[in-house]
From TrEMBL:
Full protein name: 2-phosphoxylose phosphatase 1
Membrane topology reported for the UniProt record: Single-pass type II membrane protein
Annotated catalysed reactions: 3-O-[beta-D-GlcA-(1->3)-beta-D-Gal-(1->3)-beta-D-Gal-(1->4)-beta-D-2-O-P-Xyl]-L-seryl-[protein] + H2O = 3-O-(beta-D-GlcA-(1->3)-beta-D-Gal-(1->3)-beta-D-Gal-(1->4)-beta-D-Xyl)-L-seryl-[protein] + phosphate
Domain of life according to the entry: Eukaryota
Gene source species: Sus scrofa (Pig)
Gene name as annotated: PXYLP1
Amino acid sequence: MLFRNRFLLLLALAALLAFVSLSLQFFHLIPVSVAKNGVNGKSRKRIMPDPVTEPPVMDPVYEALLYCNIPSVAERSMEGHAPHHFKLVSVHVFIRHGDRYPLYVIPKTKRPEIDCTLVANRKPYHPKLEAFVSHMAKGSGASLESPLHSLPLYPSHPLCEMGELTQTGVVQHLQNGQLLRDIYLKKHKLLPGDWSTDQLYLETTGKSRTLQSGLALLYGFLPDFDWKKIYFRHQPSALFCSGNCYCPVRNQYLEKEQRRQYLLRLKNSQLEKTYGEMARIVDIPTKQLRAANPIDSMLCHFCHNVSFPCTKNGCIDMEHFKVIKMHQIEDERERQEKKLYLGYALLGAHPILNQTVGRMQRAAEGRREELFALYSAHDVTLSPVLSALGLTEARFPRFAARLIFELWQDREKPSEHAVRILYNGVDVTFHTSFCQDHHKRSPKPMCPLENLVRFVKRDMFVALGGTTNYYDACHREGV
């Protein structure tokens, strides 16, 4: 009898707990299981939403926090995920540099006091930070293509210089490198233990923040690497267009896009009022304040939790910041809708995508060079690539953003190769214009390499009006 009563009591308690749990989920007091940072088939939200914490309407503060990308716990990612019968062949990584000091200052205000020395016991922290500094100090004889050899290998100023990488930026890319190491080296053995120089392809623009970001990621990926095996190439153009940068039609598209931006700003009375208030505070003409690009400096204050500047006339505050940031979000939305930027993006991204496809094709043929390629770049590098790929829902590249192309071989059919595209850890392959309908026509779980090749070699030009090659697309009349 005692046993029966205990059993009934436990049964009643279990039923009560089940009822409470369902009630909490129904009233949204606890989150139900949702794929974090994912994009599923039913959702058309922008890439990298957080279904649990993302606000129901566009929130400029939330978007700014995502842009800052403040290092915290290790993130979950989808890099390296594939059916068991696929073998990883090569990886191509495009990064935006990490958190940096502003490129502009708000006139007549004090510069934000950010320390750009690297201190191991200061937040944000990374266990490899001290070892990174020590290793960079040994790199004075590193093989860097001119003029990179004149740049410092890590940030070191007590008061940051304009555009300088911060400790936050270094930690962001140490984390990126360690994440990619755990996936591509430890799990998939992409590089052999005795890897050689020709198995890495490293390229950066001539800015200290991109070189240092590339080195931070590389150190997280290959800790204590042999400096004699490292060769960074210099890329003069932020578009990574090498010898194919002259493109008059691309510049025409850019001029039209800039005109669209100007007209959108004129229509935003709240934005103009905000600029006027801020100009009064710092006692300069509104036109001069706008030209100083105040959002760049304000984002630094925001990301580093430093108060916005004040003068005897008052303080720039969070409301000013929200208005300008919200306009940026609206501008990004209209940019995707008006399609003017797409022409610029297709022509701007073609050279670097063409290089990447060429490396993938050589790897698919069995060549063992350039198995891991790293391009350390800028937001103005990644943004056109994202648009050219058709990723219209992708957020603007945050600090330390990463865009990755993976090449896989089907072990069951070794002649067949497939690609995956990942943006900040999210698999966006089937959101690209060249593979968004693939799953409707084929049972294959990954996107065939030939889809990407056909897109870069042909379809990009078809979208530009029927031309058949990059030169003709860049020089055609009547755009």
